[in-house]
């Protein structure tokens, strides 16, 4: 990852950073551009320090690649939000110590990404994330939150947790914990426990 920073030395504009990042792969299917991009606030995007990029690359290889392959039918996964610098995190209304920042007060938090599978529904992806065989392939995974209203799944490697937790986002800032078995059977869990009918799709 040193190469990324060396190549960026002396490049003045964010647009040039973007152009560079667009071509830099963090893993087979995920780019540095996706890692830092913000659709809503492109002016707040900065090139992260090397250790942040290194954490992003580890997450891409250890979590996002197996997630894409095993949970999302090996089809493209759109990233709504991945790394957020502190300014961007505050601007989008992220909680102060959000894992999306990767480091907070110089402490490593883990890495987080909000994902939209293109090949399966978010319910199928959630159910597969709760499959013990698949979880064994992603030992660093810690948090899985499904956002039924917004249609994405947050996954992270929050280091303060000892094991994986599954949650459903009911409204902004309101989450319900569900068991691994409930996550495995998420369509019925939505129907029976939360009285929300969803389609498992695909
Ligand atoms: Zn998130």
Q: Please give the largest β-sheet.
A: 6 strands, mixed
What general form does the structure show?
globular
Q: Structurally, how many domains make up the residues? A: 1
CATH topology: Muramoyl-pentapeptide Carboxypeptidase, domain 2
Strand content: 15-25%
DSSP summary: helix tally: 9
Share in helix: 25-40%
**Mean pLDDT over all positions:** 90
CATH architecture: 2-Layer Sandwich
Total strand segments: 8
> Taking Cα atoms only, what radius of gyration do you get, to the nearest Å?
17 Å
- Which series of helices and strands comes N to C? HHHHEHEEEHHEEEEHH
Bound ligands, named by name, code or SMILES: zinc ion
Q: Numbering strands along the chain, what is their spatial order in the largest sheet?
A: 1-4-6-5-7-8
Low-confidence stretches: 1-12
Structure classification: alpha+beta
Note down, in words, how this protein is organized.
The protein has 202 residues and is α+β, with helices and mostly antiparallel strands. It has one domain (49-192): Muramoyl-pentapeptide Carboxypeptidase, domain 2. It has 9 helices and 8 strands. The chain has helices at residues 2-8, 14-22, 32-36, 50-71, 86-91, 122-129, 132-135, 180-184, 186-192; strands at residues 77-81, 103-104, 107-108, 112-117, 143-147, 152-156, 165-171, 174-178. It has a 6-stranded mixed β-sheet. The chain has a two-stranded antiparallel ribbon with strand order 2-3. It is globular and about 50 Å long. The chain starts with a helix and ends in a 10-residue tail after the last helix. The relative contact order is 0.12. The site of zinc ion (ZN) has 5 residues, from strand 4.
């Amino acid at each position: 990852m040193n190469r990324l920073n060396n190549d960026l030395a002396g490049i003045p504009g964010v647009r040039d950073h973007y152009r560079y990042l667009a071509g830099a792969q963090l893993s087979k299917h995920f780019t540095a551009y996706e890692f830092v991009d913000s659709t809503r606030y492109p002016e707040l995007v900065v090139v992260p320090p090397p250790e942040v990029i290194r954490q992003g690359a580890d997450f891409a290889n250890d979590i996002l690649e197996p997630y894409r392959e095993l949970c999302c039918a090996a089809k493209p996964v759109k990233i709504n939000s991945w790394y957020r610098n502190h300014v961007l995190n505050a601007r989008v209304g992220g909680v102060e110590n959000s894992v999306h920042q990767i480091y907070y007060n110089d402490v490593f938090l883990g890495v987080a990404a909000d994902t939209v599978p293109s090949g399966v529904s978010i319910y199928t992806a959630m159910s597969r994330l709760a499959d013990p065989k698949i979880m064994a392939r992603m030992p660093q995974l810690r948090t899985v939150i499904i956002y039924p209203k917004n249609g994405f799944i947050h996954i992270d490697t929050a280091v303060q947790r000892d094991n994986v937790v599954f949650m459903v986002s009911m409204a902004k800032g309101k989450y319900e914990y569900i068991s691994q078995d409930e996550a495995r059977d998420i369509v019925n869990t939505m129907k029976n426990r939360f009285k929300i009918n969803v389609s498992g799709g695909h």
